[in-house]
Design brief:
The chain folds into two domains: 104 residues, Ribosome-recycling factor (Topoisomerase I, Chain A, domain 4, Orthogonal Bundle); 69 residues, 2-Layer Sandwich (Gyrase A, domain 2). 60% of the residues lie in helices and 17% in strands. It is built from five helices and six strands; from the N terminus they run ααββββαββαα. The N and C termini lie far apart (48 Å).
């Protein structure tokens, strides 16, 4: 593997970490339809341990606006319901035995605007991280050229490849943002 191929491989690895974090962050923002991603990471204290909801039961979606949590331990039902209410995500929890139904209330215009701004702000933070990673890689390319590890031809072709990777990742981010904004607008 050439030095330039290694640089591009490192860039792709760095960018995939940023995209994965953005996907997690955007997935956790409540939309207008139910999403298991929105509640699965809510944590609660049970049996002197901090556990997430996904560790205590199975989560499924009941269209049009409900999330069903089938709890494996009956003692966890009330703590899960309290954790859902405490998360202030606009969910109303009810239970019948070991099954909890969290119903998503419709978003008001003001709340929708707040969440839209949050999605855009989160995406911009990710873009800033991408640009910082790109700048670091470009510095490595310049340093490699100065140290005669990379030829001018390698640098030229490498910059084109770096730009293609950046364009692809930016398009992926735009797609994620557009999907979330469409979900908020429903």
């Amino acid at each position: 593997m050439t030095a330039m191929e290694q640089i591009i491989k490192d860039l792709e690895a760095d960018l995939s970490v940023v995209v994965a974090k953005l996907k997690t962050d955007i997935g956790g923002i409540r939309g207008n339809r139910p999403s298991a991603d929105a509640i699965q990471n809510i944590t609660l204290s049970l049996y002197d341990r901090t556990l997430s909801i996904r560790e205590l039961g199975s989560i499924s979606i009941l269209p049009p606006r409900s999330i069903q949590i089938t709890v494996w331990d009956k003692d966890a039902v009330n703590p899960i319901m309290k954790a859902i209410e405490a998360a202030h995500m606009g969910l109303t929890a009810s239970n019948d035995g070991t099954t909890i139904r969290a119903t998503v209330s419709a978003l008001g215009d003001e709340r929708r605007d707040e969440l839209t701004k949050l999605v855009k702000r989160t995406a911009e933070t990710a873009r800033i991280q991408l640009r910082a990673r790109r700048d670091d890689i470009m510095k490595r390319v310049k340093d490699g050229e100065a140290a005669k590890e990379l030829t001018k031809d390698d640098v030229f072709k490498g910059k084109e490849k770096i730009q293609k990777v950046m364009d692809r990742v930016n398009a992926e981010i735009e797609k994620m943002v557009d999907e979330k904004l469409n979900e908020l607008g429903e």
